[in-house]
Write a structure and sequence with these properties.
mainly alpha; 4 helices; two-stranded parallel sheet
């Protein structure tokens, strides 16, 4: 992913994408064509981004959000 922006949650989202290794974030309000080209080329040429995305994809395949929500609700109702 290539992300940019300065408002709302953009810095947090962009920072998270960089932290987990699936994207590049630029804290700019206006892109230049050079910056877009550089960022896209980096994402496409660096296999680390693809590998991280594949790892996250595999992890999500084992994740059942409905089951997890049920577990949390049961834990919370037991505690009260």
């Amino acid at each position: 992913m290539v992300l940019s922006g300065e408002g709302q949650d953009k810095p947090q989202t962009g920072g998270l994408a960089e932290y987990i290794g699936v994207g590049r974030y630029h804290r700019v309000s206006r892109w230049t064509s050079e910056l877009v080209l550089e960022s896209v080329e980096e994402i496409l040429s660096n296999s680390t981004y693809k590998l991280k995305a594949q790892q996250i994809s595999e992890r999500y395949k084992t994740y059942d959000p409905h089951c997890r929500i049920d577990e949390i609700v049961r834990q919370l109702t037991k505690a009260n």
